[in-house]
Each structure stands twice: as C-alpha cells, then as structure tokens.
C-alpha cells in the first residue's frame, strides 16, 4: 500500500531550499524504512558546508553486530570520484593532460594510441568491465593484478573512443595504476596524502590502509543475513574505499569549495546539463529542476550515493549495507523532503 507524504511547508516554492530543513519529516521517512525492515544505512546532509542532519537506521535489527558513529560503509564506485580527483590533480600539476594517450602506459592494450585520459575518465574509451568474466563476477575471491590486466587485454574494446558512452570499470583500474606510477606510491598512500589528511577525514580509507570497524553486507530473507561481497583488494581505485556518510559529505563539499581542485579544474570534471549525463568522474543527478553532481556505487551487498547541488550548497550522502529500496528511489525521496515536495512512501516487499 502506497501512502502519500505531504510536506508541511507546502507554501514554499519547491525550487527553493528552505533555510531550515524539516528534520522531523526526514526522521519520519527513515523511521518508516526502519520500522518496516526496509533497509540498513546512514544519511548525512550538509548545508553551506555544515552538517545539518545525520541519522543511521536499521542497524538494531542486525544480530550480534556492534557499531558506533565511526562505523564505516563500503562506498563501492563512489571511489571512482576519488580516483578522478587524483587524476585531475596530476593534470593541474602538469604531470598529465586530458589528451595524454593510454599508450604512454599500456601500449599493449587495444586502441591505446587513440584512447586518452579524458576517454578513461568519461567512460568513452570503449573498454569494458574486467570484473565480469564469461558472464559472471569473478572478483569475489582474491586475484592478481596481472590476472586483471590480462582480462582487460582479452576483452579489448567494443567501440572507438568518443563513439558513445559505456560505463567502464576497466578504465578506472587503469587510471588507478597511472596514479600510482605518477606518484610512485600505492593508491592508498596517495589517498591519504591528497585527500584524507588535508581534509581531516577520520573515517575514510582505501582498502590497503586496512580500515577497521566496517559494516558487513546483508540481504533480507525474513531477517537480515550476512552475505559475501567482492574482494575489495581486486577493485582498488574502482570500488574499494570505506567511509562514513559524514566524511563523504565533507569530501564533496570541500571539492565544490575548491579546497581540493581549482575552479576551472572542477568544471572540467562536471557533465554539462542537457548535453551529458557523465562528466570526467562526476555524474549528473537531476531531480526535477534541482541539479546535483556526484557519483553512485554498487557492489553485491553495499550501495552508496554522494551528490552536491552547487546552487543551494547542499550535499547528500547515503550508504547502505542492506538494501530493499532501490538507491534511486531512496535518495529521490530524501531530495523531495528537502525541497518540500509531495512523494509516496515506497512499498517494501
């Protein structure tokens, strides 16, 4: 049964963000999810650079699981946004360009003389998804870097650079290795040096930094049951980072405050509304007239979304390790509450 939820501040135009968010309405929504065993996760909201809302929900239904405010979630492909930021820092420093060819690093890969850094960032390279082999996910258990590279070579390309857009995990594995070559450090150390320490993030780390206090992944079959997720050392730079939602919002807020990259560099990352859905490490998330930029992430049991609206200086981060409501719908409802719009509470089956 679908229930209609009407915002109390209906007289405020939906195109304008209220100065004070309606925390009660967000709480009511998350309580509905929690009470109906609709998910496990956390939501953080920043406004003008400050956290104005943070709530976790559903964890109390997990048996024999301890957690606290510093317990992290696997953020999956939101990691790609971090990788793209690090590539753009190299470009700012004159160590790469958007037109640098993949052949400078991997001449043995198909079309490497045509594929550019820009193609890799924007999913226009034609490269595929190394994580899927013979129609199945094969990175659940530990594999070697050479095995991954061999699979990328074997898959080759499915189209010419710039011919179309097709999401590519393989492209971001290669970007991560390029970062490591240029910095002459492993990815986790570069993340610490360029992201974690400068932004004073306390709960944000790549897998090789051995973060602890991380939620496991769960599925619901009458109750929440732990499931085996992918092996995160197989997806470094692609989907391996663990974080709290607060640290995620700090990251994207500082990014749009030009505390990580220059304004002109960040603009290169952003997709052009009306022309692109994907930029160079940032995707477009339109909710009616309200335009957000950011990234989503999905692995077998964990899901995340991190988005920012530059017009209203709003950041929203959502992470779940037990999903029954699709991420798109869950976050859309949060946005509707923030902008005082009517919406229907989701059916939970």
UniProtKB/TrEMBL annotation:
It holds the Pfam family Beta-lactamase. Keywords: Carboxypeptidase, Hydrolase, Protease, Signal. The keyword Heme does not apply. Residues 1-18 form the signal peptide. Residues 42-324 form the Beta-lactamase-related domain. The keyword Signal applies. This is D-alanyl-D-alanine carboxypeptidase. It comes from Pedobacter duraquae.
